[in-house]
Amino acid sequence: MADDLIANKKVAYYSGCYANYYYPQVGKSTIEVLGRSGIEVIVPEQVCCALPMVAKSNMRGAYKNMAYNTKMLSQLISNGFVLVTTCSSCALFLKQDYPRFLGTEAANQVSQNLYHITEYLAKLHEIGQLNTDFRAMYQTVFYHTPCHLRAQQIGNPTVEVLQLTPGISVEKVSEECCGMGGTYGYEKVNYELSKAVASKLCGDIKANPTDRVVTDCGGCKLQIEAGTDFKVDHPIILIKEAYGL
Predict the structure, then answer these.
(1) Which of 129, 128, 111, 116 lies closest to 157 in space, CA to CA?
(2) What CATH number is given for 140-242 in this structure?
(3) Residue 2, φ and ψ in degrees, nearest 5
(4) φ/ψ of residue 208, rounded to 5
(5) pLDDT value at position 1?
């Protein structure tokens, strides 16, 4: 079973473009958090997962990137590493679309051994290998579940992990779409519709004020911040703080 590799405590971190270029605090926090549980972490050579390329019909570039990542990541799995990413969009694409597009055993191997960061931490906790020496954080949280995380059908591991921290109270969990829709929301022609889709979520956040607003998706973070003027954090940032790092 793929989960058997979790006990190895060896992680290859697929950072993805957003953490790598725009939100490096997420990548740094991930490595620090995993280190607190004695996890060996490497950041392998990687390129964009290719989701944006597919969205823009650049299939030649997409297949090139998918083939490169699959070769690199499948080799690491064979060496006992599991794959972890902090981007829910990258995770969904690697899990569901790599096997569909490539149709190879290596792509299946990548799909079956890749975890969203909180999914991995929750599984680590299940086998008693997560360091839960958290300091108390008396903060309320509004948590937004990204569509691309919900589509993975893995439950809500982010809420599970946040609730391991003494004092954190997840006051509201929203599954409303933020309206960004990947590259869709970046285009001027889609601006008004994207904003309209986001209005329900942004209204809920304003109506339910909390100490922190949290989401796992960089695109959702940008959209929520634009629509509410509230700072939005990735959950791994809160987990790092709970360790006192």
Answers:
(1) 116
(2) 3.40.50
(3) -60, -40
(4) -125, 70
(5) 46
